[in-house]
Amino acid sequence: MYCPYLLLLLSLGVSAVEVQRPRGVPLSKRQFYEEGKPFTCLDGSRTIPFDRVNDDYCDCQDGSDEPGTAACPNGSFHCTNAGFRPAFIPSSRINDGICDCCDTTDEYNSGAACQNTCRELGRKERESLQKMAEIAKEGFMLKQQLIQEAKRGMTTFFCFLFVHRNIEKEISFDFGPSAEFGYLYNQCYELTTSEYIYRLCPFSRVSQKPKYGGSETSLGTWGKWAGPDDNVYSVMKYEHGTGCWQGPNRSTTVKLTCGKETVVTSTSEPSRCEYLMEFTTPAVCQEPPSLDSMHPDHEEL
Ligand SMILES: [Ca+2]
Ligand SMILES: [Ca+2]
Prior knowledge:
Layout: H1 2-18, E1 39-40, E2 47-48, E3 76-79, E4 87-90, H2 118-161, H3 167-171, E5 189-192, E6 196-201, E7 205-210, E8 217-225, E9 235-239, E10 251-258, E11 263-271, E12 274-281
């Protein structure tokens, strides 16, 4: 019968299945470690009796005979980390007194007081993934509204076009595949740091002004969309700002990430006169995958 068999398997639980492979061996390599049969190093270099697997003496050049001890300098240890995600650690960290695996399995013989934190870590990760998914979902809904508004706006644009010829210029901007970035036009967003007020006016310019008086410096005027080929609308480039003393003209890269609100979240100057701005907007939100497929709850049995 199928069901009782399954129930039996489940009731045996994780540990019962785990004893079938030597310590530190990932499930994917279990078939190479067959109890009682000679073991061939995974690089094929030599074959040794099975009792030399995990005997705390390094026999294989690739370290594969000592997956559960620190005997081989190049060995790696696999933590199952049930409840969180599996990981490999260098075997030198086995029994070194420091808890590396959240399931505590790397410290089986050191006396270190490790606590199994996998379930807690897994719970936190699921929570943050869920939170991100919710932001993406709401952001994507807002994006649909932006697209609708842009469509209505476009109709108005074309009506005006015959009256105000200069609107033609606005239409020539690339406001995204569905004009979802159009709402940013003619808007400005500020971020105040301890020294400066940064101002991003999308499709127009980026500037910086000392907080306590002083003149404004241009960090670039609208250049182009500059994201990677598969995601062009994720980065904006502003160029030809005020020249740096004995240096290039200032320029700014604006990275767009999905968010419910339209805000400049940070600015930095990773290299001289080249600024980086992070900007959240619902316009870049992608349709999120369904929540069910996002749970990374792959507990290895
Ligand atoms: Ca050995
Ligand atoms: Ca350790």
